[in-house]
């Protein structure tokens, strides 16, 4: 989750974990140790300390039986799934509950190693994530519209191939659109931007102009989809009965290039459809616009959601006996 100095800037994932934690303490747990990673620290870098997370959790659920462990990635054995570190985590505990859907695609000590040492169970959030995302892999109501954005086709190619092939329309924005325009490795057509917000440089305050996708001045960059494309994408989404959206339409972090992502968020929220949204930027757009409760399911997983929909086995799920 994002931090702003020493405070949590967005507590969505903390709030999503509360039902499972509340259930554990209501059922009489003497102690619940909550473990997670934060960022990609090099050793015990205090900039990645879990202290702000612990403070926010205890504000939301003030129970002295809850304790938040320090960042699991402070130990090099975490990402290597070392048995030594898994044993440290498992020591003096009676069971393990996996509720971090956003991490189950990683075979780490805190997702796989500890689950092999203790009786392991799926938390309420993990069960819900698998159920809601799994609906997209079954027969869906049509039209089914898949919206994809972001920087690299390779990151989402598997989902586009596995899920896009069953979609009625696939809308692509962001840097991905440029890559697919140059070379489309997919076996189906995709809807690409017809215009872009072009910038003279990759900078938040760069000079901008609206141009056709094929009329971007030499040396300039397309950093968002243009107004015609926003309208085109909204029209494609208007009649959808099933929607999956993952990834921004441009450099969403900079307000001058956020309009495309915001337009897609508003279009998805307007539609009376089964809508699933995943990815940090897509989720952030919905939250900032006050639309998070207007979609059917807002996933807490980025990479995990993509790998599940790609058809891959998730190591942190496969190790839990009670989860199919």
Textual characterization of the structure:
- Helix content is 35%, strand content 16%.
- It has 324 residues and is an alpha/beta fold.
- The protein has 2 domains: 3-122, Rossmann fold (3-Layer(aba) Sandwich), CATH 3.40.50.1260; 131-309, Phosphoglycerate kinase, N-terminal domain (Rossmann fold, 3-Layer(aba) Sandwich).
- A 5-stranded parallel β-sheet has the order 8-7-12-13-14, with helices on both faces. A 3-stranded antiparallel β-sheet has the order 10-9-11.
- Helix 6 (153-162) packs parallel to helix 11 and helix 9 (259-270) crosses helix 10 (280-288).
- It is globular.
- The two termini are 28 Å apart.
Biggest sheet, in brief? 5 strands, parallel
Helix content: 25-40%
Structurally, how many domains make up the residues?
2
Strand content: 15-25%
Query: According to CATH, what is the class of the largest domain?
Result: Alpha Beta
- The CATH homologous superfamily of the largest domain corresponds to Phosphoglycerate kinase, N-terminal domain
Can you tell me the CATH architecture of the largest domain?
3-Layer(aba) Sandwich
Helix count equals 12
List the helices and strands and how they pair.
Layout lengths: L2 E2 L2 E2 L3 H15 L5 E3 L16 H10 L5 E3 L14 H8 L5 E3 L10 H5 L6 E3 L1 H11 L9 E5 L4 H10 L6 E4 L2 H8 L12 E5 L8 E5 L8 E5 L1 H12 L3 E5 L12 H12 L3 E5 L1 H9 L8 E2 L4 H8 L4 H4 L6
Parallel strand pairs: 3-4, 5-6, 7-8, 7-12, 12-13, 13-14
Antiparallel strand pairs: 1-2, 9-10, 9-11
